[in-house]
Amino acid sequence: MIINRNEYLNKLIESKHINLIKVITGVRRSGKSYLLDPLFTNHLKESGVDENHIIKVDLDQLRNHKYHDPYLLDEYIRSRIIDSNMYYIILDEIQLVSNFESLLNGYLNMNNVDIYVTGSNSRFLSSDIITEFRGRSHQVRIYPLSFKEFYETQKLNKNEAYQQYIRYGGMPLLISLKNDQEKSNYLKNLFELTYFKDIIERNNVERNDVLTSLTKIVASSIGSLTSARKLTNTYKSKGNKELSINTVISYLGYLEDSFLIEKVDRYDVKGKQYIESLNKYYFTDIGLRNAILNFRQQEENHIMENIVYLELVRRGYNIDVGIVEIREKDTRKQLEVDFVCNQHHKRYYVQVALNLDTREKTIQEIRPFVNIDDSFKKVIIVKDEILPWITEEGILVIGIIEFLLNPNSLDI
């Protein structure tokens, strides 16, 4: 089955022939390789590119292990370039090549070469490539399937598809699996045999059990304000041995570098400054989050929040957790806005709630909004399948399925 990932494909097409290294990043098994081949290579062929002018090397394949040596890889690539026509070089999992920055740098001054690379580790890619190429790279961050992409592959109604999605997420291979047992086993094995194995080997992690335990604690804490100190205390409270805050910080960094989790900072909406003490973590795929917890903790409100976060990021917004400070009598109180979403000159304030079934619940959700002194749009996303409506305070209320399926849903 062909999954049309047009959003990402169009980004590659738009950047074609621009003298930049195109870097496709994201968690392993999220579809980076599939985006390049068959989707992008098919586009090239349909545009008239000769197949011999597409040089693709899958560096995580055993048969190509020798090309982890940059000299052998360079020799192979240059042997394929035999005329002055444009060549498209596609290197999958480039971080496996030692000193890959120098290798890529050697092609930047060639007029007939267009370079595309994928990688699954942000420390090797985001920082090293930005430093090495200083504006000569273009990054495309890819995520597992959105709910819209997932739904379009299913023969289920919207609600059935949504229930599958909030449990198993959007890893592309899942759509070919037949039953719940196969899906849960696949996701669990991804953690043990791919992600944890990569992290342990790449970072020389000595305490595998601590990495597993910490990941479970983070998975249990999505949507909750936390810090390295709080996570350390939670780890100790479960009867574990002593654990330093620095170790927790390092392990969180490994999870972020592998694109498994993302950290969201707090922003003081009125004071217009960031607050450094606490932040939130979200998983880049909710199915992976559920798998590490053996599908036991299914807090739908937090799962909804994680899914909304991912959709907002996919749509190109920079996301913060909003803090709105108010005064009650003689005390100060902080109200929370789930997401402050910024994109160029646009801003949206977004709350996520299971429902607004009572006036008290509605007041609770809109209270931060009515204390914000600006005119940017304010939105509440609820679980219920409803027709979008506007409260008397001018706040848009929309159901999560409508929000996920309509890319313009914030502007209804």
Please specify the SSE layout and strand pairing.
Blueprint: H1 6-15, E1 21-25, H2 32-46, E2 54-58, H3 70-80, E3 87-92, H4 100-105, E4 113-119, H5 122-133, E5 137-141, H6 147-151, H7 158-168, H8 180-203, H9 208-220, H10 228-237, H11 245-257, E6 261-268, E7 273-283, H12 286-292, H13 300-314, E8 318-328, E9 331-343, E10 346-353, H14 359-370, E11 377-382, E12 389-390, E13 396-399, H15 400-405
Parallel strand pairs: 1-4, 1-5, 2-3, 3-4, 6-8, 10-11, 11-13
Antiparallel strand pairs: 6-7, 8-9, 9-10, 12-13
Helix pairs in contact: 1-2, 7-12, 8-12, 9-10, 10-11
Overview of this structure, please?
The protein is an alpha/beta fold and 412 residues long. The protein folds into two domains: 6-141, P-loop containing nucleotide triphosphate hydrolases (Rossmann fold, 3-Layer(aba) Sandwich), CATH 3.40.50.300; 145-412, no CATH class. 41% of the residues lie in helices and 22% in strands. The protein is built from 15 helices and 13 strands. It has helices spanning 6-15, 32-46, 70-80, 100-105, 122-133, 147-151, 158-168, 180-203, 208-220, 228-237, 245-257, 286-292, 300-314, 359-370, 400-405; strands spanning 21-25, 54-58, 87-92, 113-119, 137-141, 261-268, 273-283, 318-328, 331-343, 346-353, 377-382, 389-390, 396-399. It has an eight-stranded mixed beta sheet with strand order 7-6-8-9-10-11-13-12. A five-stranded parallel beta sheet has the order 2-3-4-1-5, with helices on both faces. Strand 8 (318-328) and strand 9 (331-343) form a beta hairpin. It is globular. The model has no long low-confidence stretch (mean pLDDT 93).
